[in-house]
Amino acid sequence: MKAESSAAFFAFGQDVRLAGARTALHSVPNSVIMGKIPEGPIPVRLDDPLRRGDSEPSGGASKVGDVISGAMSLYSPRLQKALASFGVTIDYQPVEVFVPGRAEPLQGYAWARGVPSVEVASISCFTVDQETTRGQALFDASLNYSTVRVVNAALKAHLEAANLVGVYFVPTEEYGEPLATILKMG
Fold first, then answer.
1. Contact between residue 13 and residue 167 where contact means Cβ atoms under 8 Å apart
2. pLDDT digits over 90-122, tens only?
3. 129, 107 in Cβ contact below 8 A?
4. Model's pTM, two decimal places?
5. Domain-wise residue ranges, the chain
6. The sheet that has 117-119: what strands, in order across it?
7. What angle do CA 145, 31, 149 make, to 5 degrees?
8. Which of the residues 32, 104, 112, 182 has an alpha carbon 20 to 30 A from that of 96?
9. Cβ distance 128 to 93 under 8 Å?
């Protein structure tokens, strides 16, 4: 079967251009990195932009988007609901997101685990064969230890209608290194 145009598939992740956003996971428990998943919510900390030399977000409040990417992909309650309403089934592990400047951790975010994986020849400017996705609307395109979260066009349209914050979609054939891709979008 001929490979379907990659315009039907989009790399999906955290848009780090969200003004005032806490853009990265700062720490994840070593047990998680070593593959030992604890019971209950996993505590994770977001990076402090001031530590990186960024300016304080206006009003002193930081923003956290609907996707937080890093060693783990964390999804907000809004994103989890949007995926469920489309019929996407993912295993979620609850997390407590500690944000610098906030007294209490964010609740409701979860680590999106158990996402089906499709092996690709490259994760830079790649195409996806519809047959290899086994009909999955959301999957990880993977090569060795690198992965890119991918959605099909129908799920992309559904998620865009949900008005999510801090999320990007890039056609997989235009996707390169994450930061280079996002800078090119601007």
1. yes
2. 999 898 888 877 788 888 999 998 888 888 887
3. no
4. 0.77
5. 6-185
6. 117-119, 138-143, 146-152, 9-14, 167-171
7. 35
8. 182
9. no
Q: What is the pLDDT of residues 10-33, one digit of tens each?
A: 998 887 666 555 555 555 555 555
Q: Strand, helix or coil at 11?
A: strand
Count of CB atoms situated within 10 Å of the CB of 13: 22
138 SS3 class:
strand
Q: How far is CA 105 from CA 12, 76, 123, in A?
A: 25, 13, 34
Distance CA 75, CA 106 (A): 12
35/29 Cα distance (integer angstroms): 10
